[in-house]
Design a protein that fits this description.
By secondary structure, the chain is of the alpha+beta class. It is 42% helix and 19% strand. It has seven helices and seven strands; from the N terminus they run E-H-H-H-E-E-H-H-E-H-E-H-E-E. Strands 1-2-3-4-5-7-6 form a seven-stranded mixed beta sheet, sandwiched between helices. Helix 6 links the parallel strand 4 and strand 5. The two termini are 29 Å apart.
């Protein structure tokens, strides 16, 4: 994906990006479930996002509203060619790196076990059921709490959706916060399915189509 309407986040912006993600997801239902202890969550989230960012810069494109990074949207363009062996090697490497981090900081292995049980909430396997490779997936969409209500989210989302519209793409995403469902419906997304495994936590899988494809009813 290419757009000149947003600021392209590069590796040198990683510290600011890590700080933004940590701030935005500190109270996200997913991480509250996986790391219920507040002090442990405050310690682990920056380290987990640090591992995550290395992978994101390898496999995705990261855009922000500006160089200040008041809000970001991370997308994976499934139409772009990729090397499957390289992709899965990178996935495995960072999965092992994340696991090592969890074990090192929690010798009881409770957090590591939570992440193992919660693996279905940490991936986008469900998108395979949509039935189209003409798709972009939103991996992260976050706006700094102090900047919400100022049009940052709309600017980010509209840029992505206009690109999808121009290129005949479907856009997919998931959220673990039920309150976000109506917000995404405002942007045209509709609920595709709800994933719930091992925990009371629910993953709301959503998509909006800019192609001739009609989303299947589930």
């Amino acid at each position: 994906m290419k757009t000149d309407r947003l600021y392209r986040v590069e590796k040198e912006d990683a510290p600011k990006l890590n700080q933004l993600l940590t701030e935005c997801f500190a109270k996200d239902p997913l991480y509250l479930q996986l790391i219920p202890q507040k002090d442990k969550r405050q310690k682990l989230l920056p380290e987990l996002f640090s591992c995550d960012l290395d992978e994101l810069f390898e496999n995705c494109e990261v855009y922000a509203d500006s160089a200040d990074l008041n809000g970001i949207i991370v997308v994976s363009d499934e139409t772009e060619p990729y090397n499957p062996l390289k992709y899965y090697a990178i996935e495995l490497y960072y999965a092992l790196k994340t696991g090592a981090c969890l074990i090192r900081d929690d010798h009881s292995l409770r957090t590591f076990w939570n992440f193992l049980k919660g693996k279905d909430y940490l991936n986008s396997v469900w998108t395979g059921d949509i039935g189209s490779d003409r798709r972009m997936h939103v991996v992260y969409f976050a706006v700094r709490p102090s900047m919400r209500g100022r049009g940052v989210a709309t600017r980010l989302m509209r840029a992505i959706q206009d690109y999808a519209d121009e290129n005949d793409l479907l856009v997919s995403l998931e959220t673990h916060n039920e309150k976000n469902v109506k917000m995404y419906e405002h942007y045209g997304f509709r609920l595709f399915e709800v994933v719930q495994k091992h925990f009371s936590l629910k993953q709301f899988c959503m998509a909006v189509s800019y192609t001739h494809l009609t989303l299947p009813t589930t």
